[in-house]
């Protein structure tokens, strides 16, 4: 029997997960991804989480503050953007700068973690989960730079990159639906919107109960169905644009090939005309030299002198004598 469908995480982030009663769902997902127990202290509001009757948002994000005071930004994106990496850089930088009020020390800045859940092939790579951190690595002996003893005591960290932002990319469509570990179980849910009874990842069975579409109120279920319909429509529009662009490119290539053929034919024709003119010129000069040679032969000049003057060989000159 197939598992019952659950609401998608992007809609849950917009509607359900902002409630403290549901923090345990995101806590489970984040704990598995970050390999440490996460306790959510608060969830901040963002523009894409505002209630809207149309719900036609291409992306959804949510900003969480954990028990260590660290900012965790979770972003779900369905449509490819050529400058996506730049936008994540901006979001991270903004989250860092917003922490620092006037009079605060730089040491008060907490770590920022940005998690990108994308449903398209971002960049080029075979894996479906990527992590970026800013290690300081020696250029000569490849050692990893550590904090000083005083800094380790002050910040409770071992390395500078542990203080700096981290960036995660989960390429959902790259996942092959084989859950090899507890983190894969969450990725399986992100891709298929269902959770198997055998899954044991932290918080995932709670997500199965709380995100069950059958447990939504009648109003919430209608709202979710409208959200799914709008998202499907938006994906269809995006796909149509991609296909239109693809066909336009193909048509452009074909037109380019056809134009290229015409250009090549014109170039060949011009080259042939030049060659013909050159051949005619050579033939004309040859006839002039033949006339000159015949006149010199008629004057009975030395044949070696005539050969040197006209460039004709002795055999060619003897042949001209016979044909006069």
Give the secondary structure arrangement, pairings included.
Elements: H1 9-15, H2 23-34, E1 40-44, E2 59-66, E3 71-77, H3 84-99, E4 112-118, E5 129-132, H4 149-155, E6 166-171, H5 182-192, H6 204-210, H7 218-298, H8 303-310, H9 314-322
Parallel strand pairs: 3-4, 4-6
Antiparallel strand pairs: 1-2, 2-3, 5-6
Helix pairs in contact: 7-8
Could you explain the architecture of this structure?
49% of the residues lie in helices and 11% in strands. By secondary structure, it is α/β, with parallel strands linked by helices. Strand 3, helix 3 and strand 4 form a beta-alpha-beta unit. Helix 7 packs antiparallel against helix 8 (303-310). Residues 50-57 have low confidence and may be disordered.
Binned strand content: 5-15%
User: Based on the structure, what is the oligomeric state of the protein chains?
Assistant: single chain
Question: Structural class, from helix and strand content?
Answer: alpha/beta
Q: Give the mean pLDDT.
A: 84
Helicity level: 40-55%
- Enumerate the strands of the largest sheet in spatial order, edge to edge or round the barrel: 1-2-3-4-6-5
Instruction: Determine the number of helices (DSSP H or I, runs of at least 4 residues).
Output: 9
């Amino acid at each position: 029997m197939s598992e019952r469908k659950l609401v998608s995480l992007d809609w849950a982030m917009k509607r359900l997960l902002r409630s403290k009663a549901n923090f345990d769902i995101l806590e489970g997902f984040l704990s598995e991804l970050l390999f440490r127990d996460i306790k959510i202290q608060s969830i901040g509001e963002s523009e894409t989480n505002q209630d809207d009757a149309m719900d036609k948002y291409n992306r959804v994000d949510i900003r969480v503050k954990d028990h260590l005071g660290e900012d965790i930004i979770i972003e779900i994106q369905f449509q490819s953007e050529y400058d996506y990496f730049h936008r994540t850089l901006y979001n991270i930088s903004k989250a860092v700068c917003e922490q620092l009020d006037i009079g605060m020390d730089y040491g008060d800045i907490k770590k920022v973690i940005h998690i990108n859940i994308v449903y398209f092939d971002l960049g080029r790579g075979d894996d479906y989960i990527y992590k970026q951190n800013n290690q300081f690595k020696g250029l000569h002996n490849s050692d990893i730079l550590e904090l000083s003893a005083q800094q380790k005591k002050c910040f409770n960290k071992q390395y500078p990159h542990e203080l700096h932002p981290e960036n995660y990319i989960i390429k959902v469509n790259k996942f092959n639906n084989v859950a090899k570990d507890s983190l894969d179980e969450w990725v399986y849910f992100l891709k298929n919107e269902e959770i198997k009874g055998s899954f044991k990842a932290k918080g995932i069975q709670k997500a199965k109960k709380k995100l069950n579409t059958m447990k939504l109120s009648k109003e919430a279920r209608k709202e979710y169905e409208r959200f799914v319909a709008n998202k499907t429509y938006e994906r269809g529009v995006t796909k149509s644009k991609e296909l239109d662009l693809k066909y336009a490119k193909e048509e452009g290539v074909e037109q380019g090939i056809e134009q290229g053929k015409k250009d090549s034919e014109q170039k060949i024709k011009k080259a042939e005309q030049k060659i013909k003119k050159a051949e005619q010129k050579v033939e004309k000069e040859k006839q002039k030299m033949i006339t000159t040679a015949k006149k010199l032969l008629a004057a009975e000049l030395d044949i070696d002198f005539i050969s040197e003057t006209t460039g004709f060989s002795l055999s060619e000159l003897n042949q001209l004598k016979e044909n006069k």
